[in-house]
Structure formats: C-alpha cells, structure tokens
Amino acid sequence: MTDLQETDPDAASARAVTLIESLPWLKRFRDQIVVVKYGGNAMVSEELQDAFAADIAYLRYVGVKPVVVHGGGPQISSMLDRLAIPSEFKGGYRVTSTEAISVVRMVLTGQINPQLVSKINAHGPVATGLSGEDAGLFGGRRRGVVIEGVEHDLGRVGDVVQVDPQPVLDQIEAGRIPVVSSIAPDLDHPGHSLNVNADAAASALAVALGAAKLVVLTDVAGLYADWPNRDSLVSHLTSTELKAMLPTLESGMIPKMAACLEAVEGGVETAAIIDGRVPHSVLVEIFTSKGIGTEVVLG
C-alpha cells in the first residue's frame, strides 16, 4: 500500500515550499564555516543525538562547513559519581582536581567525541574527532573565580587564550566535519591539561576560523529579559544591548551569552543560542528567516 503522503500533491507542494524557503540561507551560508557548540539535553537524549548528527551531516552535504565543539558536563558528573570522586562547583565552574582532570579527558575525548563522530558518520564518512590538545589547536591558562569579592581556586580549570585554527582548517579542506572536545593543554605547565568552558572554546574557535555564525545549543528556548517570565524571550539583540544585560543574567546563562558577545565582537557575523531540546533546531536556526532562539549581532 502506498503512503498517502507520497501521492498527495498538496503535501508534496508544502515540502517544496519549505525547501524553497531555505534558498536564501543556502546561498548565504554555502562555503561558509558555521561553528556549533553541542551540549545540554541534546547530548544525553538518544533521539536528540541522532537528530543533531543528521543536522550536521545535512549542513555538510548542502555545502556549509560545520565545525562542532562539545563539552560533557552531565556525563563527566556521572562518571565522577561512579568513581566516587566528589564534584564541586564554584561560581558556575566545576572545581577540577588532578584526579578529576583525567576523568574529564577520558569522558570528553574518549567517550563523547567518538560517539558523536560515529553518529554523524552514519550519514557518510565525513566527521573526524579532534581534541583541543591536538596539534596546538587550543592553548589554555588556569583561571580562578571571584565570588563576593574573594578569589577562589578552581584547580585544573582554564580559559582558552590562544587558538591555532590550522588543524581544523586542514580537516575542512579535506571535506570533513571536525568534532572538537573542549580540553586544552596548560601553557604554563607543560604536560598538564585544563578543563575549559565549551561555550568559550567554541567562541574562540569561531573567531579564529573567521566563521559566519556561532550556534550554541542550550536547555532553554533562548535568552529571557525577565526570567522566569516566558513571555520575555528576546529573539534578537545587539552586542551593546547584551553588554548592558549581562550582569543581570542567571549564572548558567552568563557563559553562553558572553561567548556570543565575544564571537560577534571578534568578527563572527551572528551568534545564536537555541533550544537543543527541539529536534533539528540547528536547521531551523540556520535555514529559516525567524530562526529559533536568541540571535546576537554587532551593534
């Protein structure tokens, strides 16, 4: 029996309209680099993992040059619990001991990265895994956090302070999708690794690559001007407006919005945070006029 959808001319026309609507964006982003930060619920739900992998493969096959940067907070916490290593957070950052950093590396580079590469490669042999430690891609420096005027040590936690985009550019040139885990060598302590914020790492890489867009997946619909008022969702704002709002934001949103701000101030044309709980949210954001989350532009 033939599926009605297959023979219904109205349904076929509706699909054609959807495809045509994406034409300006296909033209806009063809041959352009788009950096996508992958995390949150999209990373732990099997269904959302598969939808995300399909989105990234789709971008590659229509001529966009996607680059994925991922963290792995929930999986790291789960593994630390299993190994009875205590998890502590200060100011929104995970305190990372010498014992914990080896677990962070194992989860990011040994578990999440190859899993995501494998899911994308189910659509064709195009994805390849990289770590921020590979070929001098990232360089990090330790950071603390100031809470109520007092500096607190975070252990093996750092900021990405330098990026050599060449390892990623080499993979793009070869027609591949680089999938990058957010860990960095410690520039001041050779042989040591640092746990770096994946939002900030994605932003720094987007700037270094001259990307056309940064997309950050999160677990909310976007930025709310008056959280938790659901009607206060902001769909578009300038870097100047965002700077004014940053100090008032909820702590978990600050790293994501700061990453968007740094990206557009560094030359990336647009940055957006989108709801990773919505299947195919990456395609909706890139290929529709309204997008799906909160978009930041310079201004």
Sequence-ordered SSE layout with sheet pairings:
Layout: H1 4-7, H2 9-21, H3 23-29, E1 33-38, H4 41-44, H5 46-61, E2 65-70, H6 73-82, E3 88-90, E4 93-95, H7 98-121, E5 127-131, E6 138-147, E7 150-163, H8 166-173, E8 177-181, E9 183-185, E10 193-196, H9 198-209, E11 213-218, E12 223-224, E13 233-234, E14 236-238, H10 239-245, H11 254-265, E15 270-275, H12 281-287, E16 294-297
Parallel strand pairs: 1-2, 1-11, 2-8, 5-8, 7-10, 11-15, 14-16
Antiparallel strand pairs: 3-4, 6-7, 9-10, 12-13, 15-16
Largest sheet: 8 strands, mixed
Distance between the termini: 56 Å
Q: Find the CATH superfamily.
A: Acetylglutamate kinase-like
Low-confidence regions:
none
What series of H and E elements makes up the topology?
HHHEHHEHEEHEEEHEEEHEEEEHHEHE
CATH class: Alpha Beta
Helix content: 40-55%
Number of helices: 12
Strand order of the largest sheet: 5-8-2-1-11-15-16-14
Report strand %. 25-35%
User: Quick check: average pLDDT?
Assistant: 92
Structure in words:
There is one protein chain. The protein is of the alpha/beta class. The protein has one domain: Carbamate kinase. It is 41% helix and 27% strand. It contains 12 helices and 16 strands. Strands 5-8-2-1-11-15-16-14 form an 8-stranded mixed sheet, with helices on both faces. Strand 3 and strand 4 form a beta hairpin. Helix 5 packs across helix 7 and helix 6 packs across helix 7. The longest helix is centred in the middle third of the chain and has 24 residues. The protein is globular. The N and C termini lie far apart (56 Å). The model has no long low-confidence stretch (mean pLDDT 92).
